[in-house]
């Protein structure tokens, strides 16, 4: 069986596991005050070129989004997100559970556009009834998006400028940030730290067993630690995330993890295209979305593990093939062999 | 330095770590559908003698409490807890954040009493204004309590009976359940499963890196999985908790973990008492609360790591010494040596 | 000045005021147990042909929506509403504040369609990821809609059938229900009580000083009174709403209020059409939406009070002219005179 | 039947009703922008000697408390209140519904004490675990308290000073403020405006049909209007409260309302004492709490309407007799006659 279903089907990267083993018996204070968390924070500050950054380690992505968004919005505010944004669709209403509305924006390939964002904000304030409406108080973007696409530097700067001119924070969901940073892109981690007010560096889908690093590049809001505790997002053994992120940001492992996965995804993309298979989206990252004949999919069933995405037409389906740090190099050529055999 | 500050200062029990290492490279489905979680659930059902139990693995205790309590209470209800209960004091208002009041009950040594509970419930329904008040919709107990004390079987049955007669669920916070089960007690895990409507088996403080097993012995309420997702309590890599709980419930490790810690705590208790040191509470579990002279505490500062609990009087302080699965046997006698030296 | 800005610019209907004056000095119990509330409930039950109905009087519409929706939804559920629905746009996120998502549905002229609703529900349950999504737990419709349009009996039955087959309640926001019932329609109040699981009969915009009657035709959910208290929706002087609704449902005043307003609106509609003025929407109720030249609007400024709705094109604007129980018959012909003069 | 059950059993004061009748047919803008609300705000600013005050009219007390407290607290904060405070007991958890904890303080006769407040705040910040606890973010007092008692100027200044030194707002629930201002007290409305950060002037229990005036003496927080809308607390016909408060603050009616009720209550108190009837509380306001023999209470049943308060001992009960603006002067002497007859 070939595994392309997602990027979280294995445990953690061997170097991450090694760090957990090496540190296991050392006594450490709890709640994130341990030395691994401290060191991980230093390494992340350095990688972000953000010496003033405050960093919180939280166990999963939905929780990180809910804590960051719900913790920053003021009571009368909601958060803008692409209609396809993860917070609007696949987090079971976690943002609304904190009392705030997700305000949908038009999207193209999972991305929002600075001009449309500005127009929406201007429209809001121009509406004579806006005091009876939810104020847009934050912009949420995912990078890579749910479709694997990326913002270019110009696009990100544009969105950041709009946010600044309306005095609302820009928040980036980086669940798969390793794969964004490793792609053919002009956006670096320091760019993200410079342009976003808060973002998270995903661990769970990028080589950790669990954990996301929520980064406030210019310092966290008041009492944010208590906000994380109140929302159940503070681990007693902060060391679990601390040690993992220490491993991920030592010797550039986080970037290496991304590079191997993206390289294989690009190989997959080229091979699919060469075989005349259409791609639903032109994704530069570790998720590829081929449009496959339903007949072919039936034949793949006991050979390849992939994700159903959406029906394309009566006879074809969009599926997702994801690579990760754990994808062995040879499986992509094995996939091609299987495809070639099945398609006869 | 001797480490008695708490029971979560080390990583995880070596057998737990071994399981994580052994399973690390096996692909598994996400969100708790992995085979380790499935097996851990089976083992827990067996240990609880509760073949119908539904079990959810959640990363930490505050989150488990908030999800269980907030997920079960109906909008007009609150939860009873001892005034000293963890949910009322040290979880930063996580229950209130879900919209529900914690209703304080009188306590003795951290425990509530069935008769007082019944009187409070009767008083509530007898109050002609009770429709303008928060309905008591659940009873929360911790076992061991925050003071290390335990409910006896008779006490637990009494509380359970009151809950049944008022048709409200009994919820047990078992953050340190391993230490309760290993103590000199007549309460077994099957008793807990029989008498409680929902409880959690603590992992974080009992040998895991993270994770608590929330158990509904007679089946979970409708769509509880979505409730956990909505509240950020569902890990993508459910295997992380699954594998750990599989290790903890294989070959009785969870009970072994408790026994070694409690045995050392009893040794500590006996030695303290022998030395004429008063104990604030008569605790049969892994937490001991000696009342120490402030002068002595100063001398211990660079030798023993313990927790401040509360001032006792002008010259003495209550402190907490906790043992755990990780406490090496010899450190208790080393502690006595240090105490004897310091007290001259 | 002619007043067409809205249907709540005056106090209350003279018969409502008379009732308040007549009952003012009679001592009554509080919190809705007064005899006027009791009698109003009887009259409403009769008018709805719903002898088992439970009825709660709540001071305003946004609050009624939030209490009804937030009080009925279970934690994992959201509420479907037309994208133009009042709860999604102009209630400042009151539903989200209760922790629930508003799930937008396609709309035409403010109305949703039974087939699209069914397709959305089927699509939800067919989605393999739906346990990670907000469950649709209620359908919200407004009648009249925000555009003054009405559901026909067939349409309403269709929506009700879908709700029944998916076991979710149908909720109708009847802020302007008097104007719906008085229009050229085949939907009666007993139809609404039969087809909806809960709905409110608007008072504020239909002749009362304040107050909406929330009706559960087949009985309210458990402890709903406490839910209203918890959400600040229970008036100490329940008599204030009780007496007003008693007046509105005595001698058919509520229907009379609607008829006079709708008759004048139809006269206005005919006159506008006759003058070649386009209507944005074909509304059969008390709100009319002419598309007027911006030049004309400037001339009207100190003569007619109306509501801005939305820009139509570079030179024209959609405005709203509303009649109410308080609109004097002659003002419609006065409006025509002014229009004729201004348009020269 | 003599009516002493509460101070909201009648409609509104005749001058309030007169104002509603006089203004009924005048068209006005909605949502609090009407001229009566504007004038009422001016009159209240003047009466408070607070020219910068922002004032919001809200329909009832529970809602006002929930909006003021929930709207001002930051996510990590709770509100201090006397254990007997209305928000902690008889508002069905309305504050918790907004996500915040009510932190109980010791009380005497319904009042909290500045020194105990300071000690609690110091204790909180001295606790090494306080970042895991709910931060005290506001102080709630009721004046008169639920027991009819009053803070003296010295006491109020003391509490205000503590709040200032800990940078948390002081909030006064003035549901019955008219009766406080009319009592034998050294606290004036300008004192309250000077010493509190926010408070409400009760209408419902002081002569209005509904409505409370929430006053921010030094200006409201940002977007508070939207916060009221979001929480269902903004009436479309703001004029309903506006006109009533205009009447109440014209020609000193609010003070007159209080004076007549308090004078009768003092007459009642003197008469009860003279007859050897013990009072549970020494209340200087319109609520009196005699301790009556159960045998006597039975005899009063069809003659006097009063409130049950709490059992005193096996044979006696604390009851509440309330006067109001509507209490006719002769009923107090009639009460004495009945008491004298019944006690034989």
Describe this structure in words.
4 copies of one chain form a homotetramer. Chain A has 344 residues and is an alpha/beta fold. Helices cover 42% and strands 17% of the residues of chain A. The first copy, chain A, has 2 domains: 2-6 and 254-343, Aspartate Aminotransferase, domain 1, CATH 3.90.1150.10; 14-252, Aspartate Aminotransferase, domain 2. Chain A has helices spanning 14-23, 35-48, 61-72, 86-89, 94-97, 114-126, 153-165, 177-181, 189-195, 224-230, 239-249, 253-274, 294-300, 330-343, and strands at 2-3, 54-58, 77-82, 102-105, 135-142, 170-174, 198-202, 212-216, 287-288, 291-293, 304-305, 307-311, 316-322. Chain A has a 7-stranded mixed beta sheet with strand order 2-8-7-6-5-3-4, sandwiched between helices. In chain A, strands 9, 10, 12 and 13 form a 4-stranded antiparallel beta sheet that branches. In chain A, helix 7 (153-165) links the parallel strand 5 and strand 6. In chain A, helix 1 (14-23) crosses helix 11 (239-249), helix 2 packs parallel to helix 11 (239-249) and helix 6 runs parallel beside helix 7 (153-165). Chain A is globular and about 60 Å long. Chains in contact: A-B, A-C, A-D, B-C, B-D, C-D. Chains A and B meet through helix 1, helix 3 and helix 10 of A and helix 1, helix 3 and helix 10 of B.
